[in-house]
UniProtKB/TrEMBL annotation:
It comes from Lobosporangium transversale. Transmembrane segments: none annotated. GO terms for cellular component: Pwp2p-containing subcomplex of 90S preribosome; small-subunit processome. The keyword Kinase does not apply. WD repeats lie at residues 119-153, 249-290. One of its GO terms (biological process) is endonucleolytic cleavage in 5'-ETS of tricistronic rRNA transcript (SSU-rRNA, 5.8S rRNA, LSU-rRNA). It is found in: Nucleus, Nucleolus. The lineage of its organism: Eukaryota, Fungi, Fungi incertae sedis, Mucoromycota, Mortierellomycotina. Keywords: Nucleus, Phosphoprotein, Repeat, rRNA processing, WD repeat. Residues 63-89 are annotated as: Disordered. Its main location: nucleus. Belongs to the WD repeat UTP18 family. This is U3 small nucleolar RNA-associated protein 18 homolog.
Length: 425
């Protein structure tokens, strides 16, 4: 059976006080002109009502026209206050501008804006940070058992909702393909699915036929049909997103370290501790091809570019091997480039939406993050700098159109950076 309770409100919110007169943008939350101080619970309720007014169901996550975004905050890279360009535009314009905007490998223009979760920092390491498909909302989650949702504008980044999972420190959380649900898992044999519009949390009762003690690692297919859980003994467990039930297993040799989907969800790629990468045909469950990661540096993670042209394999040594599609035609392909800028185990890798940037990070040492220019296979030399306050990077993500880069760390903060090359969030 499915269980669970509706969204839980943090009891600390009752002691929190907010002045509705302190910031112009909060004045709209007042019920009377003379009203000023409210507690955290009342504040969150008013924010949610305001959010629903601006983003009515069912298109609750879509922007109501174009809005300018501003930054009153910048770090050592850019200390002057800058007004940001519009982060919303028509699809046609975006597609046209994306085709014309080729990213230079010499430098990348980055501006720091307000921390994404400044309204409610986490009490633990940020395990997951993900943007909603609209680019207007971001989730954070971690071992404090709390999932938080923020409306991202680069300035206030108001918190919309917080959900407390009393029996599960969260290892990973992710939006569904449509953005209507959030899947959260931990070191438990069950997982949770949050229906955002209804505010309802459903708890799975595990995966029938599988004795998995932990479902902490998973990946959602771009098509929205599949949950792929990394199981024991080389098993990848495919679960239907509709029924939440087991559909099929994919079996590797050795243990599964990471998986990544093709853009059309037709293929799933996986890598094991033996440095062998598998290409699976999802419809049949057949392995179509296997190849060895050059060097065999004990892989830790895997990423496939949105255009399906590049494959990145991160390793325990800190090496990241980048391949093109010829790796799918030979058993022992040669990497296009081995990136050796990081020296501890690669923990996270993400391609941006147009496959021009690969972000890599390690949580083994402070400030271990680099951005790679994929067309030239060079690391951007100008950012991050020595003054960039990354701390220990635990998670990262790009917004859907790459206007933002969000970086979670060990301090419970999500740093937010504007990538000025891209006009849209």
């Amino acid at each position: 059976m499915f269980g669970g309770k509706p969204a839980w409100v943090d009891p600390d919110d009752k002691t929190l006080t907010i002045s509705l007169k302190s910031v112009n943008r909060l004045k709209k939350l007042r019920k009377e002109e003379a009203e000023d101080i409210v507690n955290g619970v009342d504040y969150e309720q008013r924010l949610r009502k305001q959010f629903e007014k601006v983003y009515p169901v069912p298109s609750w996550a879509l922007p109501e026209g174009s809005r300018k975004r501003h930054s009153d905050y910048s770090d050592e890279e850019q200390e002057q206050e800058q007004e940001h360009s519009l982060l919303s535009s028509s699809k046609g314009f975006l597609e046209k501008s994306d085709k014309l905007r080729i990213l230079s490998p010499e430098s990348i223009s980055v501006t720091r804006v307000k921390n994404a979760n400044q309204m409610a920092y986490s009490k633990s390491v940020i395990q997951s940070v993900e943007f909603h498909p609209s680019g207007q909302m971001l989730l954070t989650a971690g071992f404090d058992r709390t999932l938080r949702l923020f409306q991202i504008d680069g300035k206030l980044n108001q918190m919309m909702q917080s959900i407390f999972y009393k029996d599960m420190p969260i290892y990973k959380a992710a939006f569904s393909a449509t953005g209507s649900e959030i899947v959260a898992s931990g070191r438990r044999k069950y997982f949770y699915v949050l229906d955002i519009e209804a505010g309802k949390v459903e708890k799975s009762d595990g995966i029938y036929g599988r004795q998995e003690k932990s479902l902490e690692k998973f990946s959602l297919s771009p098509c929205g049909e599949w949950f792929a859980f990394l199981g024991r003994d080389g098993y990848i467990v495919l679960v239907s997103s509709k029924t939440r039930q087991w559909v099929k297993n994919l079996k590797m040799n050795g243990n599964v370290r990471a998986v990544a989907w093709s853009s059309d969800s037709a293929f799933l790629y996986s890598v094991g501790g033996d440095a062998e990468i598998y290409q699976w045909e999802v419809s049949t469950g057949k392995c179509l091809h296997r190849f060895m990661d050059e060097g065999g540096f004990r892989p830790t993670c895997l990423a496939v570019s949105p255009n399906d042209q590049f494959f990145a394999v991160g390793s325990k040594s800190g090496i990241v091997n980048i391949y093109d599609r010829t790796c799918l035609t030979t058993r022992n392909p040669k990497a296009l480039r081995a990136i050796g800028n990081l020296t501890t185990a690669i923990h996270t890798m993400r391609f941006n939406h147009d496959s021009q940037i690969l972000a890599i990070s390690s949580k083994g040492r402070k400030d271990q993050l680099r951005l790679i220019h994929i067309p030239s296979l060079k690391v951007f030399p100008n950012w991050p700098t020595k003054g960039t306050p990354l701390s220990y990077v635990s998670s990262l993500t790009f917004s859907p159109r790459s206007g933002y880069l969000a970086i979670g760390n060990d301090k419970g903060k999500v740093l937010l950076y504007r990538l000025n090359h891209y006009p849209s969030a």
